[in-house]
Every structure is written in C-alpha cells, then in structure tokens.
Write the structure tokens for this entry.
Amino acid sequence: MTSIYINDYAVMSRLGMNREETLLSLKSLEPPRPDTPFKLNDGTQTKLAALPSELPESAQGRTRTNRIASTLLEHLAPSIEQLKASVPAERIAVIVGTSTTGIEEALGTLKNRLTDGSWPEDYKFADQELGDLADHISQEIGAEGPSYTVSTACTSATKAMISAMRLIRTGMADAVICGGVDSLSALTVNGFHALSSVSADQCSPYGATRDGINIGEGGGLFILSKTPSEWKLLGGAETSDAYHISSPDPEGTQAERAVRTALGEAGLSPENIDFIHMHGTGTELNDLAEGQVVMRIFGPEKPAMSTKGMTGHTLGAAGAIQLAINLLAMKNGFYPPHIYDGNRDPELAGIRLTAPQEAATSRLETSLCASYAFGGSNAVIVIGRE
C-alpha cells in the first residue's frame, strides 16, 4: 500500500497559538484549562476553551473559522510554497473538517433580519455553508485539485485525514492540505446544553463526577503526500454504529471494529502502539463506551489520555488537534497529560491514564487517535515514525 507522509503541520487551541506554545503547555505541570465563562440561554453557565489570544491582523477571511484557518496556513507558508514549486496546482487537494463554519456570524445577521426586516448589505449566505472552509483554503493557497469539507460532527477532522489518504492512494491527488478547524458559536454551545451534554464547570474526562463537555475552538492543518518525511500515516478506518442519533452504542462494537481495522491496515497489533489518544469527551455514556473498547483491545497497561480537559471539545477540529498533540509528544519523548479532577470513575479504573510531565519510558514510535461522534460515527488513525 502507498505510504502517506505528514510533511508539515500547524496547530492552534487553548494550549497555544502555534506548535511551540502548544508544546510548552503540554509539558507544564498545570496546563491551561477551559476557563472562559459563558452564560447559557437558560441563565446557567458553562466554561469555554477559547484561543488564548486574538488572531493576527494578517489572518484572512470573512468568518472566524476561516481566519483561524488562514493563521494556520501562515504557519505552513514555507512548506506550501515549496510544495507548489514541485506539484501542479490541479494536483493539490484540500479536504478539511468543520461543524461551525460561519454560523456565529450568521446569528448577528439573522438578528438584523428579524429586527429590521432586511439582511445586512455585506451578508453572504455562503459564509455559513459547510463547504466554505475548504473553498477558502483552496483560494488562499491556489490549490485547484479536489476540494471539499467533511462535516460529521466530532469525527470530521479525522475522517478528512482518512479521505486525504484515499485521494493520494487512488491517484486523484499528489498532495492534500487536510485537517479541521472550528470556532466558538453560541448556537453550538446552547445546542449541546439542550442535549444535557455541557459541563457546568471544567470537564472531567473519565472522572466519577463528569457531567459533560466544554466547547473549545482551534484547528490543525497537515500537508500529506508520498514524499518521505519523519512522520507517516500508517492506517485509518471508519465505521458506523447505526445505534442512536446522539448516544453511542454502550458496547462500543463498531468503535472497536474501527480501532482493529486501523491497526490491521497499519500492520500492527495492539502491543505495537505506544500510547492511545482517546476521544474522551467527559460525558457519562461516551467515556464509558470508549473505556470498554480501550480495555478490551489494549488492556490496563497501555498509556492513554484525553486532552479535552485542556483543549475543550473542538468538535470538527478535535481529531486534527489530537493528531498534532501526538506528533509533538512523540517528537519530544513524553506522554500527553490526561487532565481531569483526579476523581476516577471506578468503572473505568483499569485504564492507565497519563500524568502531567510524564516522560515516555522508551522512544515513542507509534500512536493512535480515536474520534467518535453523533450518529455513531467512528474514525481512527494510526501514525508512526518513518
């Protein structure tokens, strides 16, 4: 099977505005946590994981989602220019995941429409279309290959990465800019609250008193190609529970199948994986279902973590941020920390959760990222060193 490499990547989240800041936060004894208060429509509160600083003035785009993407592209600019010098524009594809696009900006224009009876003169419906993010990235870098957005809630970015792998392997593209970006929106936060899925305080993945998620924002973008580099995408798999519109299959049957299929494509056994980056939302049902899968496949000794206690749940960008965190950890020889309130759910006590500043016991060669979403969508990626 054609080898797919990660030639470069960029990341932004509550942990930092770039790779360097993210690494410092990950290695801190007390990493940043979701800490921005947000008043919900019913008067109660939650906390959000907002980006730690304003976007640079150079960021382009009509929506915050697109400006986050533009900032990530700025970090990748030298590598993208090098890519364009060797790969024709029509052979460069853009496949990205998102869930919010420009919906926050649309809320203001809709309010104007309801109040004044007219849309603002600068309003463009396309700003809130799901395909807008991919279109924006393609236009900004001059890519002319296949371009589309994946929007499957919390698996969006991971599925975009797997789709990018397929485009290269089938010869439809020579290189792909892929990953995921999402920005904060009152609609999204209140929507999750309506489903009783939002934490009243800071989320606590795998904690005994966990009560929901903290919504976050950010993104990760990657350059994939067949050009050898330090990091390789070894395998990826997608399955569907077909169980419930929002609740996971409590047995995790199809989630387990996704993990085992990804391992099979990578040619690895569970023993070959150095650590597991779990989805770990901090909701009761999702953590319980995923925890059972981890125990069945990997057992109690494998280092595992969810980083949503730091980044919040970035929805369509979650898988991309997870993957970038894995790359930083593997490069620097430590395990990403599992941050929660420290009060472990006894039903999940067997899982070996990592601690802050925990150094790896040996060179990290492989890791696994898992993403699970509404509608029973499951997506898993395995990465390794060349």
Q: What stands out?
A: The chain is about 30% helix and 20% strand. The two ends are 15 Å apart (CA to CA). The mean pLDDT is 96. The chain has one domain: 4-385.
